User: What shape does this take?
Amino acid sequence: MRAIQMTAPGVLEQVEIPAPTPGPGEVLLNVGAAGACHSDLHILDAPAGVFPTPLTLSHEVAGTIAEVGAGATGWSPGDRVAVYGIMGCGRCRACLRGLENQCRTVPVGGIGISRDGGLADQMSVHASRLLPIGDLDFAAAAPLTDAALTPYHAIEVARPALRPGNWCVVIGVGGLGHMAVQILKQTTAVRVIAVDSRPAALDLARRLGADETVQAGPDAVERIRSLVGPPPGGADVVLDCVGVDATMTTARNVLSIGGRLMLIGLGGGTTPVAAVADAPPPVPFEAVVEMPFWGTRAELYEVLALGREGLIHSAVQTFPLDQTIEAYRQLRAGEIEGRAVIVP
Ligand SMILES: NC(=O)c1ccc[n+]([C@@H]2O[C@H](COP(=O)([O-])OP(=O)(O)OC[C@H]3O[C@@H](n4cnc5c(N)ncnc54)[C@H](O)[C@@H]3O)[C@@H](O)[C@H]2O)c1
Ligand SMILES: [Zn+2]
Ligand SMILES: [Zn+2]
Assistant: This one.
């Protein structure tokens, strides 16, 4: 079968490999769609040894069950499913609470990250990772498993601060951010300010319900402050879906006292936290800085429900498998609107 693999750090290739055989408790999926996340670019850019090679990329997968392995009860060939990408140990304190994204045993990882993912004609996966998608399109369902699940989890964590009339700033309206805007508008009554460096992304944010949009740049803090008001007030929650120095600086400078800064993007930025009495602290008093990671299986169930009810929509640009390398080129160049999704 065909697969798109990182064969060495920075090297992405289309290869022919044998189709996997489902092991005990696993199913074989015919991949219907696999999303291209910006994290895949970080994986490609990482130094040798951080991620295994060869590695079939994509941790956002939906498809049809082709074959059911021994003991994978409850599923049948033909079932249409989405894949929950995290594989927790199932036994630690966090997993027992359903927080597999905080597993204390298995290092942060998942399909397409620490083991083969969905950019292939077929993949095998443990049946416990499957959730039914009803008649959702595969290309619409795949991004729900990460591009929507990750901001949904961050929003769940910050929900006590997402009160009617409060302000939430979403920085970066790409794969994750375009879902964040919709989840906020559909599940809270906050006012949403979307920030991006690309005018096309701001257009998308407006179409998806953002109340205000602000072009990233030197006067972004002033523009956002004109909406959210001066310190010690400000944005109650900031979802930084980029995570570079510039966006983290914007984020902490518009945050309210007691605000919540959710660092979702993994762009390599840093931000100061300091305990000072004689100057405004870099992060306001009472503020919380959090690093949410992906989401839980229960949250994915809820995200799929939002998708199946038509309350959130994946804006996708689809590519055939043979065009995957071009899709990643466009993602890196900032040419994708919403999510790039590969349809084998
Ligand atoms: N924490 C997690 O669990 C988790 C999960 C998935 C992805 N991520 C990370 O989230 C980030 C976003 O992923 P994505 O797939 O949505 O990426 P994307 O490329 O689809 O979207 C990024 C968006 O940010 C915008 N942007 C880039 N630089 C900017 C800047 N300086 N100011 C304002 N806007 C800017 C781009 O124009 C684009 O619209 C990545 O770093 C990814 O690795 C984290
Ligand atoms: Zn991702
Ligand atoms: Zn665990």
In short: The radius of gyration is 20 Å. The longest strand covers residues 26-36. The chain has two domains: 2-146+294-343, 149-290.
